[in-house]
Design a protein that fits this description.
By secondary structure, the protein is α/β, with parallel strands linked by helices. It folds into 4 domains: about 5-150, DNA polymerase, domain 1, CATH 1.10.150.110; about 155-245, Beta Polymerase, domain 2 (2-Layer Sandwich); about 250-325, Beta Polymerase, domain 3 (2-Layer Sandwich); about 335-570, TIM Barrel (Alpha-Beta Barrel), CATH 3.20.20.140. The strands form 4 sheets. The protein has a 7-stranded parallel β-sheet with strand order 11-12-13-14-15-16-17. Helix 21 links the parallel strand 15 and strand 16. It is globular and about 80 Å long. It binds one DNA strand of 29 nucleotides through helix 2, helix 4, helix 7, helix 9 and strand 5.
DNA sequence: GCCGTTTTCGGCCCGACTGTTTTCAGTCG
């Protein structure tokens, strides 16, 4: 079993224990451990028992359970637990507004053990009348069932950000609103989000809530109170608005940005220092005197921490690092001097090299890498060697025109299923940079795929493996391969790994990119731009890089053109 | 079930909104 599967088992155990009304803290312990396992950059298989217990939230009991799963592929305790309740109860808990208590009540009173039987009961009016439940709850259950049947896709960061910015600009038209900004997972730069959180500062919360719940894009108002309201938009996204006094904006921003795990961690820390932290500020536990509230920086300072950038707030070691002032100095968009993965109309792009170069230059870049597809990718009008040499000539001519910008000749060479490349070494040697990628045969076994990638990296001309895992968000999972071995080979062969900035790719993701950095592998950011406006995707890649704790020194794009060419050389 | 700069036992983050109630439990983030 892999990390993800083991974390899932712990989460399901927590859900079952919750229905069984077990000890709340025991349930939390399972969820807490699951969260830490999901955040791990290393495979659980690589730990020994003592090492497992170094994972936060994993003690003697859970480490033994992990070992059992790693060895046998299952967990006896879990198998027994599953028998104790109908599995449909877990689906019922997924319905918004239905938690463990209601699920249990429904099962005990009406033997409801699936979404279907729940829907039937609600339609025939059997729910209203149960102790503590009336018509309103019955209606909400039917609404909730409809919602989960639609199974909304994960919302891509860029889409959610546009929606959020529209709402914020509407809110800001209200003169009573002093400040408004994105919070939640969107502010932390997660690649996909479940909802949108917005924080506003105003002395007149009511007016803000009126405006918000009355916006054109609102389909349903889920909740509306004086401090907090939630709506669902016409395209199905839940948006939460929290309004606070401007005086506590910083505290509220910390609280509302999360993550939940990060918040728990800093609240625990506060408590140890005889402080209390909530969305209104940091307070002295005894005197209730306020220590900080208005600015985010002050909140962290009051806890003895340096400021933690939102992208790091995942309880992945950032609080510990902030304590000893060892947080990384994260890369920013302004550190980027080049785009290292760009297409043109020579293959499947829609603009000339010249237009792409002009755009990149105007963005302030010093160079860019033109990396059109190789011949094997017929669907993308991949270049054969003859056309590639013509393109190299055109780039030479264009480079004469530019004084302060350089175009590097490259190719995104297809890695064939046996690990050989789509161009011979004779051709590759004439390129400034070689990018290599898998575009087919995703279903190979993990072993074959690992060998395929390793062989490509061992080629003396391959400089960067682009979109290394091949996942497409909402469409296709990553292909199977041994990431640790690929990272090790990347390090040994001086091959960089890309964070592809295309919104659906963002590949490597934050966890993998951080692992690569830890092993000393260089990271390359490439937009994979197929048109001039797609250079903008760079900010998404930078965001992933920041979540991966990347600094300037880890990223090839921060080097001057000369340094870049020197650093990527093999041997 | 985890964890320890007061603790190896006794704690474990904090508050808002809904729907049902007449002061609160359940759910959510």
């Amino acid at each position: 079993m892999n990390n993800k599967e083991i974390a899932r088992v712990f989460r399901v155990i927590a859900d079952i224990l919750e229905i069984k009304d077990e000890n709340f803290f025991r349930i939390r312990a399972y969820r807490n451990a699951a969260g830490h396992i999901e955040n791990l950059t290393q495979d659980l298989n690589d730990f020994n028992q003592a090492g497992l217990q170094d994972i936060p939230g994993v003690g003697a009991d859970l480490s033994a359970k992990i070992i059992e799963m790693l060895k046998s592929g299952k967990l006896e305790y879990f198998e027994e637990l599953k028998k104790s309740i109908p599995c449909g109860l877990l689906d019922i808990m997924d319905i918004p507004g239905i938690g463990p208590k209601t699920t249990k009540l429904l099962y005990e009173k009406l033997r409801i053990d699936s979404i279907d039987s729940l829907e039937k009961a609600a339609r025939s009016g059997l729910i209203a009348g149960l102790p503590g439940l009336k018509e309103k709850t019955q209606e909400n259950i039917l609404k909730g069932i409809l919602l989960i049947k639609q199974k909304p896709e994960k919302i891509l960061f860029s889409y959610a950000q546009n929606t959020a910015e529209n709402i914020i600009s509407s809110l800001k038209k209200l003169k009573e609103i002093k400040q408004a900004c994105i919070a939640g997972s969107l502010r932390r730069g997660k690649e996909t989000v479940r909802d949108i959180d917005i924080l506003a500062a105003s002395l007149s919360a009511e007016k803000a809530m009126e405006l918000f719940t009355g916006l054109d894009l609102v389909k349903d108002v889920i909740a509306k109170g004086p401090a907090k309201s939630s709506i669902r938009t016409k395209d199905g996204i839940q948006v939460d608005l929290r309004v606070v006094d401007p005086k506590s904006f910083g505290a509220a921003l910390v609280y509302f940005t999360g993550s939940k795990e990060h918040n728990i961690r800093i609240r625990e820390l506060a408590k140890k220092n005889n402080l209390k932290i909530n969305e209104y500020g940091v307070f002295d536990l005894k005197t209730d005197k306020i220590a900080a509230a208005e600015k985010e920086e002050d909140i962290y300072a009051a806890l003895g921490l340096s400021f933690i950038p939102p992208e790091l707030r995942e309880d992945r070691g950032e609080v510990e690092a902030a304590k000893i002032k060892k947080l990384p100095k994260l890369i920013t968009l302004s550190d980027i001097k080049a785009d290292l993965h760009v297409h043109s109309e020579w293959s499947d792009g829609n603009a000339s090299i010249s237009v792409m170069a002009e755009t990149a230059f105007k963005k302030g870049y010093e160079y860019m890498v033109i990396s059109d597809h190789s011949q094997g990718l017929g669907i993308a009008r991949g270049l054969n060697p003859q056309r590639l040499y013509k393109q190299i000539d055109e780039i030479k001519t264009l480079n004469k025109k530019f004084k302060k910008f350089r175009i590097l000749s490259a190719a995104e060479v297809d890695i064939k299923s046996d690990g050989t490349l789509d161009f011979s070494e004779d051709v590759l040697k004439d390129l400034d940079v070689v990018l290599a990628a898998v575009h087919s045969g995703f279903k190979q076994s993990s072993r074959e795929m690992t060998k395929r990638l390793v062989k490509a990296m061992e080629n003396r001309y391959v400089n960067i493996i682009v979109h290394p895992t091949g996942r497409l968000i909402n469409e296709r999972p990553r292909y199977e391969f041994d990431f640790e071995e690929v990272v090790k080979t990347a390090k040994d062969t001086n091959t960089a790994l890309e964070i592809n900035c295309y919104p659906k790719r963002l590949d490597l993701d934050d966890i993998h990119a951080r692992r690569a950095k830890q092993e000393g592998v260089r990271i390359s950011l490439g937009t994979d731009a197929h048109s001039a406006e797609q250079f903008e995707f760079m900010r998404l890649g930078v965001m992933v890089g920041r979540r991966a704790w990347l600094e300037k020194k880890d990223v090839l794009n921060c080097l001057s053109c000369e340094e870049f060419l020197k650093k990527i050389k093999k041997d």
